[in-house]
Amino acid sequence: MFKNTTTFLSIARAVSVTTLILVIWGSPAYAVQWTESPDAGDLPGTAQVTSGPANEALTTISGTNSGTQDRDMYKIRISNPSIFSASTFGGDTGLFDSALALFDANGFGVYMNDDGFVNVGDSMLPASHPLGPSSPGIYYIVIYNSNETAPASGAAVSLSDLIFPIPQAPFTQVLGPTGGGGSLPVSGWLAADVFALNAGYQINLTGAEPAEAEGLVDLSGTVETAGGTGLCAMVLASGKFIFSCNPNGPFSLTGLSRANDDTVKRQVYVDGFFPNIQVLTDSVSETVVMTRSGTCPSYNTPSNPGVFPGSAGKRIDISGSVLLQDKQTPICAMVLANGQFMFSCGGSGSYALNIPLDSNGQFKLQVYADGFAPTIQKFDEFSAINDVRMARSIECQ
Hints:
CATH topology of the largest domain: Jelly Rolls
Structural class: mainly beta
Low-confidence stretches: 4-29
Distance between the termini: 64 Å
CATH architecture of the largest domain: Sandwich
Helix content: under 10%
Number of strands: 31
Strand content: 35-45%
Mean pLDDT: 87
């Protein structure tokens, strides 16, 4: 970080090659080693995205800091925040004085350090520090020349825009985002003198993984009505599911395996809405807009469940078949009841689930199928066997 609040360090315009080694202590037996190519950007939108096999540690990142205005930022995934740390060796060699900073997935500052020890210019982000990352997920780590540049937010034009305060002698403080611009995400960099460095570095990591796992897909976003209201939905993909509830709308599914055709099928189900089913070829974060089912004909006998609070929490077996209208044609559908689900896709349309009863001793049977109106009914433990008959979506008004 800037070590002089009035002027930046003035030094020669060229320097011989120096080598910087960043170490995040510890190396597992199997690891992903990442090499900068091409030049890493300096903001979350341009940061170099590390990738590698799923569930393997990211242990090294190698690259080159070409000059005082070259800030190298990398997108990583912190898998174990309690052991995450970073330190540099050779970070005060020649004309290069390193600093390390960590930002969260939204670009907000987490913590930074200029010098890890007194009279030693090596930077250090210590493990288990109160300012360190508290939860696993996506983060951005950046290395830069502390004497000539610093991360800022907003307009990024003055010292009041700095995300982290300026370290004071002996420059060993671990600093949180308490600068004038610390309440906003990083948007730019303050800069001083420009000169060449050509400083090579290697980053060794522990407690981290590649940001993107090769062959796997991450899906996130919000489920909303056409008017933008968040919905409590079941989002399902590659055998994993999540409910977009509390608050309504947001969802995230990570590390999803691909089908044989290299795609992932995302399925979204909401009471009162048609299913939203899409085949995706890559990771995506987007809004899923649901369409209301409207008024649809019913081919099912109305249910009239009793109220039995004494049966709350009791587990029962339910079963039946999902069929087309008043016919015996089986339908491949998603059957959901009190948090348990399965697909009736074995050829006969049959389903069978073991479920807990709710506080009234009842269960809500929800059946969704692509191209059909959703069917939602409530039953009690004395009506455990139910065939569900589906209306086509084109029958709805």
